[in-house]
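Students often ask why we bother encoding 3D structure as a string. The short answer is that it lets us treat folding as translation between two languages. Here is a chain of 453 residues written in the first language.
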Amino acid sequence: MLSLKTAVYLIASLLICRCWVALSILCVALGTNGQQASTRALAARDFTLVRETEVGLEIEARSPGASWATKGTEAAALLIEVDGQYNQDLLLWAGDSPFIYRVMLGRLPSGKHRVTAKWNQSRSAAGAEQATVLSLRTITLARDSNHTHDDALAQAYSPVLYQRANTIDRFSDLPILMYYEVFHLNEREAQIRYTTIFTNEDGGTPTAALMARWGRAADIEWVYEIRVRDGQIVEEKYQGVTHETKPFKGERMNGSHPLLAVASDNNNFSDQTRSPLRFALLPIAADLRDSTRESVMDAHPWSYRVVAEELRREGKLKLDPGDSNTISDPRNYLYVDLEATQKGTAISVEAVGGKEVNSSSSDLGDVKLRIDRSGFFRTAIRFGSGESAAAVSSVIVRCHSSATQSCEGVRVKSIAVLKQNYTPQNLTFRHVPAQRINANQTITITLRPNFRH
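And here it is in the second language, the structure alphabet:
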């Protein structure tokens, strides 16, 4: 028999749970309807489609006085409508600087349409009191000389993401880039995988470990994948919570775009959950057969900036990092891209020379921060300054093994630093063909200081 204290606790817990469910339902309603009371139109564009097609949108905008790095002024929020109907949300994370944001409106029928961008006061940071839309430009994504059949198919099925509920109005873990990869399995079948880059992750891998094992503080997660046979979808799956691959059984909008929600603190997904805000990023094509996933960020250097600004605001950047969730300024690191095949081994990378007496190691002396996966991967090595990172004379790749296994096919693909504007700067070095590194042995890669650019 339950004690009185236990019974009261259970009843209170049930009431709280019901209140959260009711609040979530109310928030979703406000996110799609009630927001209208606190919005103001900033710009609109009329356009005509000669046939039904997928449509993207470029929004050049700024938020005077806003800064993603400063608590309370993070960003102004926009609400995007198509033909008077709510389509999606947009956070102007670039602040006062004019920036072109690219979003997917979805599949629209032929005829006349109007897209409207509104300032959403209720979802803007308290100190982000203004938003300016400088231009709106629609992009038709029909198959043509600029868009292959693969591109058209990938655009048609790009996912729409509901923001994780516990990040709303906290301006954290924002999805900023989406890319897709196309894998031709045979003449009849192809696979398309969508991946999203987030500004960071509030849970999961600590920030210092992200830098050591992945070479970035951003979070990169595959979201959704389809398999196509003779032009027909035969399989759909997504990355569920705890990284579980699950069949997609959710709803769609604006054509065939699947609806998914960020559902965990390490940015995994659900095809059932919803929240008041949703984002539809215009996906970009990526061919990573000979590159790391992080190379997508290299092609969009602004991504490093917004990640760093969020880390600064959240207190994760320190001059002398002393715990697993703090790092130095990302511009104080040396970034090394490698390729290897591993089984029962792990790799770390040391950097030698330059303006610092002692060598620096990617694993920070912690076994758990070594890289034990195969394929292409990146690591980051911390220095006292960006100048010191750019002045290294050599890097040493070490194969760690508790037995006799070797690291196979090891190749250093690139060595780089981030300039002050966050643009990657490649350092010139003597390339060495892929080779085996025996257990607990090393190879040394020599940089050419006279040819740095």
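Translate back mentally: DSSP finds six helices and 27 strands in the chain. Keep this in mind for the problem set.
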